[in-house]
Amino acid sequence: MPDGNALISGKTIQGTRVYSPAGDDLGHIDDVMIDAASGRTVYGVLEFGGFLGLGSDHHAIPFGKLTYDHSRDGYVTDLTKEQLEAAPKQDETWRENRDWQKRSHEHYGVAPYWL
Amino acid sequence: MPDGNALISGKTIQGTRVYSPAGDDLGHIDDVMIDAASGRTVYGVLEFGGFLGLGSDHHAIPFGKLTYDHSRDGYVTDLTKEQLEAAPKQDETWRENRDWQKRSHEHYGVAPYWL
């Protein structure tokens, strides 16, 4: 279980559920993305099924938008389903695609990790 | 494959081999440890078998001591086997054990991540 005052294991994060503040289950974290230059964890990759009218899909969200909630044994994000649905479409290049990253951070109102 | 100029996936790091500068295979990364407070990746957990005269074991090393080398498709560390062998013994509390972490960072000559 990730702990807000300690170290969290990448393996443990994988599979942790993500909820809205109201308690809706948005999916689970499938992976974390680490900025090689700084060592910072910059995205949690949310895996979800269904609510966008698609099959299981992946969606990188800024790691700072995930807050661990012990009472739920999962992350809570203040991002809404609507924000997730309206996010810039993510293709296979997103890890290296600064243009997508810029649009994504703008969409979420989160400062870029690379500046 | 982790890329020095891009984002690296926690899942991909898991299993990546670790070499000495001379090319000795020291083991592989089993997990990464993320400081919940800052989001920084602070340790790579090296899994190795045998060279300490033990079975498979785990050893947290400061993440900054791991440099990705494309030609080897793995990490290279300038830590020697002797340094690893002489490192402060790691028990189950190490994730929360600041005393162990202090001794470990001193041993490796790496600035603490928590200051």
**Strand residue content of chain A:** 25-35%
Detail the poorly predicted runs of chain A.
Answer: none
In terms of quaternary structure, what is this?
Answer: homodimer
Strand order of the largest sheet of chain A: 5-4-3-2-7-6
Order of helices and strands of chain A: EHEEEEEEHH
**Rg of chain A, Å, rounded:** 14 Å
Secondary structural class of chain A: alpha+beta
Instruction: Give the overall shape of chain A.
Output: globular
- Average pLDDT over all residues of chain A: 87
**Helix share, percent of chain A:** 10-25%
| Largest β sheet strand count, sense and barrel closure of chain A | 6 strands, mixed
Please work out how many helical segments of chain A DSSP would assign: 3
Number of strands of chain A: 7
Pair with the biggest interface: A-B, 31 and 31 residues
N→C terminal distance of chain A = 31 Å
